[in-house]
Fold:
Amino acid sequence: MFQQLLRRLATALDARHIDYMLIGGQAVLVYGEPRLTKDIDVTLGVGPDRLDEILAVASELRWQVLVERPAEFVQRTLVLPCQEPQTGIRVDLIFSFSPYERQALRRVRRVRVGDVEVRYASLEDVIIHKLVAGRPRDVEDVRALLLKNKNVDQAYLRHWLAQFEQALGQPLLERLEELSAARR
Structure:
């Protein structure tokens, strides 16, 4: 059911020339160990000014928008939460426009899902997203990703984690060091 949903989403976004990348649990599945995930998180290569276009994609896919006032909600959160009604799978469409997100969108990994290429965040960008989120599940995902994947671009990770560390005041580089030391 996830694969069919991903194929339909990729086709709809590609038809409109909208860059995107899957992040979160779906991306962890590409690089790490199989694990349970109940939703799909998608970073879009567009800002909230293109909400009408994204609402048209949701409508075309027959998804239910989960907020009453999408424009207000997206302005406040940069997320359009949707649900595929037949499966109950939640899909969060995340609007983006920061320099980091633009670079991450250029680094996607294209993975064939059936007859469609689906764009996933690079391994490094999944690690960055997970460390910034910082929830226990995210930290465990990073630990598993670092154990399974030996060729991680440390310079890229350190560059962007330093940027986020400064902006957010979180010890992200220290957290990466702790998790990296555990794999040695």
